[in-house]
Amino acid sequence: MKRTNPLPSIAVIGAGLMGRQHARVISTSTQALLAGIVDTDATIANQVAEQFGCPSATSIDGIRDADAVVIATPTATHTSIAMEVIDAGLPLLVEKPIATTLDDTLSVLEHARSNDTPLLCGFVERFNPAIVTLGGLVDETIIHWLSHRHSPRNSRIQTGVAEDLLIHDLDLVLRFWGNSPTMVSASSWISPDSQLEEVVDVSLDFGDGVATLSANRWGQRKVRTLAVYTDSRLYEVDLLRQFITVYRSQRQEGDGASFREETLIDIPFIQHRGEPLSLQLDRFIELIMGADASEEIDSVIGPHLLLNRIADHTATSS
After folding, report:
1. Pairing of the two strands 9-13 and 33-38
2. How far apart are CA 78 and CA 95, in angstroms?
3. Would you say the C-alpha torsion 104, 80, 69, 95 has a positive or negative sign?
4. Could you report the per-residue pLDDT of 161-204, keeping only the tens digit for each?
5. Taking every annotated instance into account, which residue ranges of this chain make up the domain Gfo/Idh/MocA-like oxidoreductase N-terminal (predicted)?
6. Which of 13, 16, 129, 169 is most deeply buried (CB count within 10 A of its CB)?
7. What is the pLDDT confidence band of residue 317, given thresholds at 50, 70 and 90?
8. Strands 197-205 and 234-238
9. What's the fold here for domain 125-275+306-317?
10. 35-59 burial by CB neighbour count: b if 16+ within 10 A, else e?
């Protein structure tokens, strides 16, 4: 389809919390236009469309003139919508996870690849300035990676905490390590109220180091932290505040009666170019405008494969 406007127009399918966030960043972008809001609930679609000054529709037929699509509907609907969008030849950004099963995820990715359709998964932490900065700081083998991704209860989420939260950290740890773990162990807690996994703790053995990941959706406050240990440094990362502290132990001494330790503390500068969701949008626009999308599709597979291994382990051990 030939664009009549130099800026790409992007429609958002799903008018829930994440859909509204995507609509917000698109509507305020100077690099794209918000083509419309799609939701099966016409009332909600109209409300959100009115808020952001764009058309509304109740099906994809109402946004055929869009140049690209963001899918922010419940995970169970991702596969059918994504396939329809790919068949329409529209680049798509799909919120994570891509689908409820690994087979469906791989089918969507293969369909996008075979149709030469750009696909970006909503791994928004990739664009967190603290993560981008950390990637430039860590130049040694990682010995231990410790992450906490905790949140208060959220009754609107229809998937377990691994699919909802843990998958972000699976994506990050794979990107930093560069290979898959040789061993996986996991344990989980299923809430008697939600009947979903609300707590998952995972240990990943990479041979040269270990990652310990904790995801909790039954907490009392929002926590997004990392501690990355190498032979000479400890990097503490607050993903919410986008802040990094680097510790280097210099000397330890004691005489039996006392103990003394000297540690250097560095606070690296973090360039804040914008909120992660807006930076993710910038990457999506690059794909819409013709940037090579093959690496993006390849990078989506690993976290979903690992998520499936963890699901198999928790199912076996429960």
Report:
1. parallel
2. 8
3. negative
4. 999 999 999 999 999 999 999 999 999 999 999 999 999 999 99
5. 10-120
6. 13
7. low
8. unpaired
9. Dihydrodipicolinate Reductase; domain 2 (3.30.360)
10. bbbbbeeeebbbebbeebebbbbee
How far apart are the C-alpha atoms of 13 and 144, rounded to whole Å? 39
Bond into 97 cis (ω within 30): yes
- Alpha carbons 99 and 114: distance in angstroms, whole number: 18
185 vs 211: CA distance, rounded Å: 11
Reported CATH class of domain 9-123+278-292: alpha beta
Supply the DSSP string of 183-195, one letter for each residue: EEEEEEEE-TTT-
State the sign of the Cα–Cα–Cα–Cα dihedral 154, 159, 160, 166.
Answer: negative
Burial-class residue 235 by CB neighbours within 10 Å (0-12, 13-18, 19+): buried
Determine contact, residues 186/311, Cβ cutoff 8 Å. Answer: no
Question: Which tens digits make up the pLDDT trace of 263-316?
Answer: 999 999 999 889 999 999 999 999 999 999 999 999 999 999 999 999 988 766
* Contact criterion met (CB below 8 Å) for 45 and 15: yes
First and final C-alpha spacing in the chain? 51
Domain ranges across the chain? 9-123+278-292, 125-275+306-317
Predicted TM-score (pTM) of this structure: 0.93
Determine the pLDDT at residue 256: 66
